[in-house]
Amino acid sequence: NNVETAVIAEDLDATVLEDRGLGYLGVSDEQIQTIAEENAEVSANVEHEQSDPDPAEHLTAPQDGDWLVIL
């Protein structure tokens, strides 16, 4: 088993976050602005005998010192 991660982009602005659908998911404009202050798009590839070979991409942002998957 192997896990590989990479940061694809950092600090995506509010317009990009809205275009990615955060507003449609019930995230308020205020919350989107907060997420836009610090965020990163990461790619994760988990190699396992039953895993999908394509890496997954996720938007992450910090909350209380931990980075959480947002989208």
What brief labels describe this structure?
alpha+beta, four-stranded antiparallel beta sheet
Walkthrough of the structure:
By secondary structure, the protein is α+β, with helices and mostly antiparallel strands. It has one domain (2-69). Helix content is 21%, strand content 41%. The chain is built from 2 helices and 4 strands, in the order E-H-H-E-E-E. It has helices at residues 14-19, 29-37, and strands spanning 2-10, 40-47, 56-63, 66-69. The protein has a 4-stranded antiparallel sheet with strand order 1-2-3-4, with no helix packed on it. A hairpin with an 8-residue loop joins strand 2 and strand 3 (56-63). The model has no long low-confidence stretch (mean pLDDT 90).
Which radius of gyration do the C-alpha atoms yield?
Answer: 14 Å
Q: Report, as a whole number of angstroms, the end-to-end distance.
A: 25 Å
Query: How would you write the strand order of the largest sheet?
Result: 1-2-3-4
Q: What is the molecular shape?
A: elongated
Total count of strands: 4
Structural class of the helices, strands and pairings? alpha+beta
Q: Regarding quaternary structure, how should these chains be classified?
A: single chain
How many domains, as an integer? Answer: 1
Mean of residue pLDDT values: 90
Supply the number of helical segments. Answer: 2
Helix content: 10-25%
Largest sheet: 4 strands, antiparallel
Element-by-element helix/strand order: EHHEEE
Low-confidence stretches: none
Give the amount of beta strand, in percent. Answer: 35-45%
